[in-house]
């Protein structure tokens, strides 16, 4: 094995590891349960081009900046900011950009693992044939029994602990023997299984209908809401503002072509999202009936039902959810890295101990989200469960704020010489575009995203019965046309959702009693719905 160069917290041994690790980190559940729907509803292939434009012109510069800062500083986001603050002789208050980024990664990981637990359970449920011949009612019953039954929540806790154990155990092995080896095996394996499912879909599924839905150019469906949808998806699904890219840049060998690698990750992420959508809509025998669905309901209700009567459904359901587990597992491993790296740099503790302590803390924090769906479902603050408020705080405040701080600091508070030294070699035109996007465009766009996200989240809480001050009828927080990001499990053809579908949280949650199993065995609000699962979850 090649000998890695040394950094205080670890290093990759191969230049290509950055690509595999970043691909695993960026391809989250939103690309499975959100992107295919958005493409189908907002112009098909035209939406995909619009999405790529948002990536290249808005979010790609921030991805490059975070990665380049890490490679230059050879530290995680907190100490990297500390070094730049000292070099530029700026206020120590800028250190909060790093601290808040680590906090955001910790919180997002805490509830991401909850979805990983459900997917892991579904792999075994599918292999055991529990979905064979299942209809909507049976699938809702299986999901509610796992997630929302307050009398048997310990089973859900067991799956949650098992999933996090798989993540933490690998992290404890170290950067090279654990994380690098894992991502170099799991990320390609995930892509191969997904490619096999696409091949099966093309061979025996309704591949033509799925491709027409997702890839046909339909200019009439492209509106201003389409641009908003593309922009929100481009920002919230790439792991920005949480220190992941900074740490991966710090791990990267000097001979890695960082900017090209980041561009390759963005393109691969988009291709995988398209492939996942084609596979899902093609394999379902009535795939056209799922074309208006997305979110939690698509993944954990409609998809198992659609596959239940196919030949070899046990294999298909298990294989599909194995891919889902790989997606959430690689995302979770990536989110854990900046948290573990920060703890190592702060305390000097060994890698194994740091990973164990931080993983245990994530497990403990994740129990709050897990219990929000069952035992604590009636415990609400201003109309929202603990899980819902964690989503709102991370998506509406922490992630946008950290992104703005990084872009403003790099664009305005570092000297131009240091800024372009951090960026590295680049064509003059590309460098100028990057610099002015970081200075002017990105802070404004991300501020809009954060404010829009927060405003529509608060409106959604009002619809859920919140009595907060923002619910006064005289206060207009957001246009009534703002749309959901992850529709209700039972609201498969939500007209309001079709109107925009950007990155904003739901303003029109579904009513109890729909097929999502909202009222579990014990009568509590159960499975996550439009108002609970906001955009950036995973």
Automatic annotation (TrEMBL):
It is found in: Membrane. Residues 480-538 are annotated as: Disordered. Its main location: membrane. It holds the Pfam family SNF. The keyword Plastid does not apply. It is a multi-pass membrane protein. It comes from the Bacteria. Residues 488-497 have a biased composition (Low complexity). GO terms for cellular component: membrane. InterPro entries: Na/ntran_symport, SNS_sf, YocR/YhdH-like. Keywords: Membrane, Transmembrane, Transmembrane helix, Transport. The chain crosses the membrane at residues 18-39, 45-64, 100-125, 153-170, 182-203, 230-250, 262-283, 315-336, 356-377, 389-413, 433-451. NCBIfam families: Na_transp. This is Neurotransmitter:Na+ symporter, NSS family. It comes from Marinobacter salarius. The lineage of its organism: Bacteria, Pseudomonadati, Pseudomonadota, Gammaproteobacteria, Pseudomonadales.
